[in-house]
């Protein structure tokens, strides 16, 4: 049986696992953005917190994914449901690019523009939302792009703890030495990562041009 015939016969299951994968990636990226972007803004304005926050995010990034899943498994509320654990792990891995790019984007705003805003009587809040964030948006979006691609790739490993997603097909294929099963999980995951990278990259370039 060819790979295309296998996909056609198991289309419903592959679609269901793809949607599970997208759900995990979407929720974890959203949570990481809600945490990482404010942290990036905070350390951009409060330099004392710069090194500790970035160091903590870097340490999380260096922990192997399976080891991180293992560390989180004993946590009572998280360990009860593999999906929660996977979302938390993906959120932690997505923090570094979001914090780092937000920090870089805010710090990269021309100080003369900020001073001009202050001269016009703008408050710190107005400067942040009307000057700094709009000018830093393309750099921040670049961090979102990296975070999404990381989450799509690491999301496949979440199947090792029973969280579902396309990794379930890959692990099942490895256990059965079945190349069709492996490709049925690997190809859609690669397509999702490439699509996210291309679409967010295009949006980033548009914002930079504007």
- Computed over alpha carbons, the radius of gyration is 20 Å
The major beta sheet can be summarized as: none
Low-confidence segments, ≥5 residues, pLDDT <50?
none
> What is the end-to-end distance?
50 Å
Instruction: Encode the helix/strand succession as letters.
Output: HHHHHHHHHH
Q: Give the overall silhouette.
A: elongated
Helix content: over 70%
Number of strands: 0
Strand content: under 5%
Count of alpha and pi helical runs: 10
Structural class: mainly alpha
- Residue-averaged pLDDT: 88
Brief synopsis:
With 210 residues, the protein is mainly alpha-helical. The chain has helices at 3-9, 11-45, 50-62, 65-72, 76-79, 82-107, 111-119, 124-155, 167-176, 179-209.
Keywords for this entry:
mainly alpha, 210 residues
């Amino acid at each position: 049986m060819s790979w295309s015939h296998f996909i056609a016969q198991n289309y419903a299951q592959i679609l269901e696992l793809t949607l599970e994968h997208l759900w995990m990636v979407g929720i974890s990226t959203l949570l990481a953005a809600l945490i990482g972007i404010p942290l990036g803004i905070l350390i951009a304005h409060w330099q004392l917190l710069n090194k500790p926050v970035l160091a903590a995010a870097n340490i999380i990034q260096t922990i192997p994914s399976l080891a991180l899943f293992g560390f989180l498994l004993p946590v009572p509320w998280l360990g009860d449901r593999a999906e929660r654990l996977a979302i938390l792990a993906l959120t932690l891995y997505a923090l570094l690019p979001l914090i780092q790019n937000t920090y870089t984007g805010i710090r990269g705003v021309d100080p003369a523009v900020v001073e001009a805003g202050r001269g016009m009587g703008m408050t710190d809040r107005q400067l942040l939302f009307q000057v700094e964030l709009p000018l830093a948006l393309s750099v921040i979006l670049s961090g979102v792009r990296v975070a999404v691609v990381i989450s799509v790739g690491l999301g496949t490993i979440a199947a090792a703890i029973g969280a579902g997603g396309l990794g379930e097909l890959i692990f099942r294929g490895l256990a059965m030495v079945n190349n069709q099963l492996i490709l049925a999980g690997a190809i859609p995951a690669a397509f999702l990562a490439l699509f996210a990278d291309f679409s967010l990259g295009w949006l980033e370039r548009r914002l930079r041009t504007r």
